[in-house]
Amino acid sequence: MADQIPLYPVRSAAAAAANRKRAVYYSAAGPGPGADRHSRYQLEDESAHLDEMPLMMSEEGFENEESDYHTLPRARIMQRKRGLEWFVCDGWKFLCTSCCDWLVNICQRKKELKARTVWLGCPEKCEEKHPRNSIKNQKYNVFTFIPGVLYEQFKFFLNLYFLVISCSQFVPALKIGYLYTYWAPLGFVLAVTMTREAIDEFRRFQRDKEVNSQLYSKLTVRGKVQVKSSDIQVGDLIIVEKNQRIPSDMVFLRTSEKAGSCFIRTDQLDGETDWKLKVAVSCTQRLPALGDLFSISAYVYAQKPQMDIHSFEGTFTREDSDPPVHESLSIENTLWASTIVASGTVIGVVIYTGKETRSVMNTSNPKNKVGLLDLELNRLTKALFLALVALSVVMVTLQGFVGPWYRNLFRFLLLFSYIIPISLRVNLDMGKAVYGWMMMKDENIPGTVVRTSTIPEELGRLVYLLTDKTGTLTQNEMVFKRLHLGTVSYGADTMDEIQSHVRDSYSQMQSQAGGNNTGSTPPRKAQSSAPKVRKSVSSRIHEAVKAIVLCHNVTPVYESRAGVTGETEFAEADQDFSDENRTYQASSPDECGNMAREGLRTLVVAKKALTEEQYQDFESRYTQAKLSMHDRSLKVAAVVESLEREMELLCLTGVEDQLQADVRPTLEMLRNAGIKIWMLTGDKLETATCIAKSSHLVSRTQDIHIFRQVTNRGEAHLELNAFRRKHDCALVISGDSLEVCLKYYEHEFVELACQCPAVVCCRCSPTQKAHIVTLLQQHTGRRTCAIGDGGNDVSMIQAADCGIGIEGKEGKQASLAADFSIRQFRHIGRLLMVHGRNSYKRSAALGQFVMHRGLIISTMQAVFSSVFYFASVPLYQGFLMVGYATIYTMFPVFSLVLDQDVKPEMAMLYPELYKDLTKGRSLSFKTFLIWVLISIYQGGILMYGALVLFESEFVHVVAISFTALILTELLMVALTVRTWHWLMVVAEFLSLGCYVSSLAFLNEYFGIGRVSFGAFLDVAFITTVAFLWKVSAITVVSCLPLYVLKYLRRKLSPPSYCKLAS
């Protein structure tokens, strides 16, 4: 019914009609809980004319039915580009991807998941074949490794271009130089990449093998047998000891604990470190001996495998009893894979294995991450390729298309192929390795590990940071801070008073009761009928402390449970059914708010005395509600709520989940750097809001909009309109409401959320976290970073452009899956502001300089060919070309990885410097065009200068121009450097020394005479003064104007870092 709320963006008269229709619907809702909610929405939105403010940006969507409504936002985005523009921009990629996906789906058709009946200890009775219970995190197998790695390398235009150019040298008619000049750099890049991938893959294989080889005890008719984790089947009865990992999803049948329950640790599944209580099926727990599980005929009916880790519905049936026993199964009867048994020994029947377990279904496959800088360089490479083709066509055209022109065209393509330098990938990959090494060696962030060395520059381009809460922002250490009794409040400094009050009251009780504990029950029952008298502070403290001691989730680390079993029936009722986490309106809401503003997690404690008859009535209704197969959770909640009335308020407690060191200044630094922070947590809404305030994720001046619980499209529409009217406020939303909003209003919701200074998503499943990351990437096109510390954060970390894991109390699963691993959240500040910023700026400078090095020599080749009647003859051959890209210029150019514009301390002090990087101005088409113009100018000056000044000694033009070229490159490195490092100076002089010393050995290469005139280098000629001043003159003319321009730009329009550096 609620889904029929009119959402048409009509105007004037039509709007009034829609309002009338809505009013009729709301009045027809009748009495009940739903009616209140609708009237609330109606009153709130009546004045705002909801239907005059459509959420949709266009009106096309409102004429569609709800069934195909969720396809509209994406359809609208797709309609923005059509025709040739769409095909050129993204169409071809989209079509290729669609075809590949279709082929994969045909080859790997997914099996439909179904509900199942599992007989205890009888795997052979399974009607269907279920997946193996093995964990597989490897990307490749033996057959797909080499093709897979080669595909990942050659899907980039840069590498594919090098491969085609190198292969062309096997054709005699196209051969330009020596094979090693082309194949050596390409082979080096491939060898390094394949070695790195092989090592990573082998490590993943070893980790998987270790987990799959873990031994478990399997219960059979003949007794216990040892079985590997990977050999466990659906229907097996598995025994799991204390501190052992649960190998597959199971229903909990028996435990060694007398109470019939046990505790498990779920930190690797949902990220929460508190232990969860699990209850064994009472029918099997009551059996006298373990072997009796095979003497009964029983089965479990389980729902189909699904992702939700917080719910489960099933039934346990024993057929051989009269009448048959039917027992309802819920989440408290399950043991999910990847959790750890914390107390006792448990026996369970396996219901889901392998890919169908909750933990695997919530884990996304790791993807090969590619940095934005690499994609930008790939685009620039395509632009250079177009320039290369155009230049070659111009040359052939000026030749007059004489002879076999197509062969000449290809030879020109090979001659100018240095426009796209093959050393670009080598330099960048080596640079990435250096940045990773610097991060790991930084003493200010000890324990940092770089696991993915291909994306360090991503740390300098982030716009969205998605963080977990528990263990990431907080220490996961709860400290009791406040006890409020209505009239008096005790803080951390007055806890000794509470101790003395409790000690006094218990000593009085012992003297009165004579040490008999059971005597405490009758007075409690009489209490309810006796007239109320004002209690002393001491007795109120005693009542409050006793309630907290009896009803809590704190798990004792010892095995003995005598303290609990020795209590009275009333205490057991309290422990089972009191819902302490409910905030009672009868309590002091002002004091709750005050504590929450201090960043404390508040809890209201109340009690109710029950007679025996009241308790029996409650227990029967509670059991009946639990057996219901439809709306079980609602019915159970209704029964519990009937008990929680007319309760006596005891106290209000405040507990602090201590933040990690320097979380507040770190978050403030990230905000100033222009990074928007989203907190995604599996915790409750109140707790998440509390931490958001205490960590200053939400500043004190900002409002918080708590998104109400919505269940359908109508409610989502109304709530989104209410949210739209808020400005500059943080958003807090639960996972369920988020799911509804994304189903119907994906584009609108993301657009509104992105305008918020901070967003908090609570009760998020691991898959939802990853989905939010993907949505941000798709809708904003900005770079995202995810940071977490638990197994539940792995999907989010792998989905983000850059994943950071924290080694915390929740294990190492997140840090092992992440691209970067740190010890504390505060380390992220230096990692981004210093290392991320430097990595991006250095790689941008290095990439463009390497391109400049290729462009300048291609310009000289073009000028040379033009002078020689457009002949496709190489200017420099053999080792000259290899030496130019390696020993003559490599060290100075590569030393740019040590360059920095400001000191690390300054980058941390002024995080606003980071904001400039997100605009991508260090590497853009504008900066690239400037380098192209510089290259054309310098290449032209060097070649024409050599031809003009050395007219009389024309045969020496190669030696002269090459010497001037080397000097120019060394001077250009000096021009680019912003902060000198002693290694840079060493590199400059080392390269110059290498060139001078090699002149004596390379005389056969110098002189175009080797091609046509037969002339060689004259050593005596090089040592003349005329040679030296002419080379110096050419070099000065090519470099001096650029130095002057740089100086003027620094003076007239200095960049922001210059102002700080000065």
TrEMBL record:
Residue stretches of biased makeup (Polar residues): 505-530
Its BP terms in the Gene Ontology are: phospholipid transport
Entry annotation: catalytic residues: 468 (4-aspartylphosphate intermediate)
Region Disordered: start-end pairs:
503-536
Q: Where are the transmembrane segments?
A: 383-403, 409-428, 850-872, 878-898, 928-948, 954-975, 982-1001, 1021-1045
Enzyme Commission number(s) of this protein: 7.6.2.1
What's the superkingdom here?
Eukaryota
Q: Which NCBIfam families match?
A: ATPase-Plipid, ATPase_P-type
> Know the name of this protein?
Phospholipid-transporting ATPase
Originating organism: Macaca mulatta (Rhesus macaque)
Task: Point out the gene that encodes the protein.
Answer: ATP9B
